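Supplementary Methods, section 5.1.

A reviewer requested that the exact input to the structure prediction be made available. We therefore reproduce it here, unchanged from the version used in the analyses.
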Amino acid sequence: MPEHTTDTIAAIASAPGAAGVGVVRVSGPAAPVIAQQLLGRTPQPRHAHFAAFRDDAGELIDRGLLLHFPAPASYTGEHVLELQGHGSAVLLDLLLRRVCELGARLARPGEFTERAFLNGKLDLAQAEAVADLIAARSQAGARAALQSMEGVFSRRVDALLQSLIAVRVHIEAAIDFPEEEIDFLADPAIARQLDAVRAWAAELLREAQRGLRLNDGLRVAIIGRPNAGKSSLLNALAGSDRAIVTPIAGTTRDVLRESLSLDGIALELADTAGLRDTEDEVEREGVRRAHGELQRADVALLVTDTEHAHADLTFFAALPPNVERIVLINKIDRDGLAARSEHRDRAQWLWGSAKTGDGLDPLREHLKQLAGAGSGEGAFSARRRHVLALQRVAMHLDRAAVLADIRAGELAAEELRQAQHALGEITGAYTSDDLLGAIFGSFCIGK
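The structure derived from this sequence is encoded token-by-token as follows.
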């Protein structure tokens, strides 16, 4: 983990917005001295001071507010200075230059939040939620990121971690006293504890997957044979003619993506080429890309009709196990069928018409539910690395249960140690410098 830095950093934290206000933020040991030189006197902590910001020659740069937050009661845990100015980005740049002349240096992307993490003001999951909140694509995503920033996700990870450690202590105690006649690993209480931890980890993984969808948006791959109505469905859901629709089979040759929001829930729809064997080299490449899109999707939405529905289910054969499945029986206006929905064959089946819009509202509602709508006030945002870490936790816990059952205590304890390490990666208890650099390097400068 990087060592705590002792220099002072500065950056434009926010450019002028609708109110014409911009902020220059400073953090580090020199912040009080910079504040005193800009204000002309020692500032009162956590009070807004009206100040005339001047350059080295005494020329006026801008007039605005100066606020000083002494360490450790600040965002970064260091002395923090905020300078609120009005006007243009040019004036903010001049003010930033003046701050650097007085002893600061330009901050790297994400360095303010990195210092908050290094100083124990935030854990790593909370720090990442800061960036997620800024980049939120929907109202639901913003609310979920705020929950993570407030520590909802971190507290659940920590609670799981404490339960895991308790099981690990029992198993390692059995290893430490092999001369005892009592077989501690045969104690049903250990098996019950381990089963409870596995169930808890599985639930947290499901919540993190919902959080990932709230954060990134639900990725929906629309698939089916040529002329099934995939492009018409994309247009109907998007509310515009984004995709070309013709009666000619093979019109869609590439993946066409459209981002939209359904009642504050972000969706990314991907219209793919019709799945079929073809001699057309361009169309064949489109089919290959369609299969690739399925591998990265959260949802496979199969568009078919009453004649081909069961045969088209083979398109689901190569799906990863975690991809949700939807079957839309399209063109019910042509076949004289009524709109309805039911769950069968591991998929949600719906009957509707992309042409008339009949039956598409239940599809929209189902997509919203899959994306995390209705998850409740406790819904939190998550990142793909969090989901991958929790998947490793589940894998190690499953292995530990098998090994404990056959009395291989040393191996079970090692699996629990690996699970504990994977959990620690989420909040930053075990984190490489390279990972920290990648995470905070993706932040905006000034955050």
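DSSP finds 15 helices and 13 strands in the chain. These observations are discussed further in the main text.
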